[in-house]
Amino acid sequence: MKILILGAGQVGSTVAQHLAREEANEVTVVDIDAERLQEMQDRLDIRTVRGMASYPDVLARAGADDAEMIVAVTDSDETNMVACQVAYTLYHTPTKIARIRATEYIQAEALFVQEAMPVDVVISPEKLVMDYIRRLIQYPGALQVLDFADGRVRLVAVRAYYGGPLVGNELRNIRDHLPNLDARVAAIYRRGEPIIPEGDTVIEADDEVFFIAAREDIRQVISELRKLDRPARRVIIAGGGNIGERLAAALEETHNVKLIERDKDRARQLSERLDKTIVLHGDAADEELFRDENIEHVDVFCGVTNAEEANILSSMLAKHLGAKKTMALINRPSYVDLVQSGAIDIAISPQQITIGSLLTHIRRGDVVAVHSLRRGAAEAIEAVAHGDPDTSEVVGKAIEDIALPPGTTIGAIVRDKDVIMGHRDIVIEPEDHVILFLVDRKYVPAVERLFQVDVTFI
User: Fold this and answer.
1) CB-based contacts of 28-32 (< 8 A; 24+ apart in sequence)
2) Is pTM beyond 0.70 here?
């Protein structure tokens, strides 16, 4: 695809790298910062244009007249919206994606329609990250929790612990342990290497296990792999920016929430806007403040300031002082591997969370959800099966008869409102939502081809 990316900040540069280097698209990046553009051009096989992203002449120089997609991710909501409007009015760009941060815009749903503000897809990285963290807090033992089929199915990553009922057992015994529910192991990572699950695969302690189950069954499956942590009640959030405020607002009705913000004026604003959250003015890495707030009794500490070094240090300090679980928002992929599984339990990469929602609109075939996993090495996809046995490679076939690429498993199928686990004898029907796990994302094009309907299908 020919794609214009407007904005070369953290989100824009990550998207450009993914779409140009790993997806082999023709990418042009627009930004006002010449130095930043030069740095990206040195690293990536992309074209760059310097200028204001919403100006018609700048979009013209960037090739908007024949671009298939515009991804507007500058730091300004208004610039992103105007750029989409200009692209639609002057160039009839088919797909327009805009990053919108202000909740005031997002809540006005009637605004984003073709006859008003022609933005096809609104992406709010802050909301995506907030939802991601909230799901992790909901399931204390999980490393990742990802939604499919409007939340009816979830893919969960858990580290297997000594003493878990399934640890040391073959996967075929899952049904003996869980007779009243159905779940499927999609992949296992052992010492960082993927293992394709078979019936005789034995789960070992410290394995990272990805399983798929209906939302209501998740907690019970986690209990088979590790000691079930008690539900989180006390949460401290460090950082009162967009993510911190949204997270506090989402949790304060059901949790005891405290939020630390170092800017006095911002802290005052937050205290007025949040109903039940206790807002503390102070430094997120202040040991004395942590002790005063009884950090040793905190179930979850979340470092979500704008400075990843502050998130790392405050999370490490919180863990050292007794916080049961710590999470840190980290932008640089190289930092993620360094800190996770040490003093920090979960490193959260906003870029990896955001990239999935963008990939959903770039995939061939009818793909309704994409999640990038394992720092982009793996991927989970929800694709819709169309056609009939004559026009489709999957419809009318049992899962065991589908020519899936190496390292690809079908974890579950959602048919109407029923969740069906992806066992070998299940036959795919038209309009089924099929949830797949790929341990190697280089096979994504092969999966896309499987779900593309033959040209004779009308």
Assistant:
1) 28/2, 28/3, 28/4, 28/62, 28/63, 28/67, 29/4, 29/5, 30/4, 30/5, 30/6, 30/58, 30/59, 30/62, 31/6, 31/7, 31/74
2) yes
